[in-house]
Amino acid sequence: MSTARYRRIVLKLSGEALSGEHGYGLEPQIIQSIASQVKEIAELGVEIAIVVGGGNIWRGKVGSEMGMDRATADYMGMLATIMNSLALQDSLENNGIPTRVQTSIEMRQVAEPYIRRKAIRHLEKKRVVIFAAGTGNPYFSTDTTAALRAAEIEAEVILMAKNNVDGVYSDDPKINQGAEKYTEISYMQMLNEGLGVMDATASSLCMDNDIQLIVFSITEEGNIKRVVQGEPIGTTIKGD
């Protein structure tokens, strides 16, 4: 297969996906691998937006548990996503892929502010757009950011790349060897079974806007391209 199934996608990367086995910080080899895989699908003509988490640097929930004001802790998490986004931008551009970072919190010396129409124009010009700083509001996850931005830019699918699991299971496969891997489920089933793929706010946005979600492993080289070309890997989540 040499053609892409999707015209415009949102690639959701967790912060941990950038840290490799360490679980914290940035792993240059992992970032380079992701950049190479993004280049592969860019060469198929796919319009690519990326949302990156910040859990490899800071988690707002951890700060809140330490007694920190939740909003302050979440803003720190947004800054962590910007650091990850700039690292990914640098690697993509070193691979010859024109990239723009847009932030929900303005910092013009570092990146563009998020403007929906400008983001769409970048995508039409085949530039990769990285959405950083979440939604710009505390209490909202980067999963919600991915769902919101996908709706705003009219993306057909969210590709949720995981570094420690290859899809959605009925239970934790590391604990329960008999856990069933789903090939396709609905958002309602995911919520009713408490599968923890994404939070309820993000799920509702996806359901309301008929956005498909595919959960897959990013640790195997070339998986992003396989998903974009329609190979049945990972788990597909759709509306009822």
TrEMBL record:
Binding site for UMP: G54, D74, T135, G136, N137, P138, Y139, F140, S141, T142
Nucleotide-binding in keyword set: yes
Residues reported to bind ATP: K12, L13, S14, G15, G55, R59, N163, Y169, D172
Region (Involved in allosteric activation by GTP): 20-25
Catalytic activity: UMP + ATP = UDP + ADP
Molecular function terms from GO: ATP binding; UMP kinase activity
Top-level lineage group: Bacteria
Protein EC: 2.7.4.22
Gene Ontology biological process terms, A to Z: 'de novo' CTP biosynthetic process; UDP biosynthetic process
Modes of activity regulation: Allosterically activated by GTP. Inhibited by UTP.
Gene Ontology cellular component terms for the protein in this record: cytoplasm
Domain Aspartate/glutamate/uridylate kinase stretches: 8-217
Function: Catalyzes the reversible phosphorylation of UMP to UDP.
Subunit record text: Homohexamer.
SUPFAM superfamilies associated with the record: Carbamate kinase-like
Keywords (A to Z) from UniProt: Allosteric enzyme, ATP-binding, Cytoplasm, Kinase, Nucleotide-binding, Pyrimidine biosynthesis, Transferase
Pathway assignment: Pyrimidine metabolism; CTP biosynthesis via de novo pathway; UDP from UMP (UMPK route): step 1/1
Alphabetical list of InterPro entries matching this protein: AceGlu_kinase-like_sf (IPR036393), Asp/Glu/Uridylate_kinase (IPR001048), Uridylate_kinase (IPR011817), Uridylate_kinase_bac (IPR015963)
Entry's family note: Belongs to the UMP kinase family.
Name by which UniProt lists this protein: Uridylate kinase
Main location: cytoplasm
Subcellular location: Cytoplasm
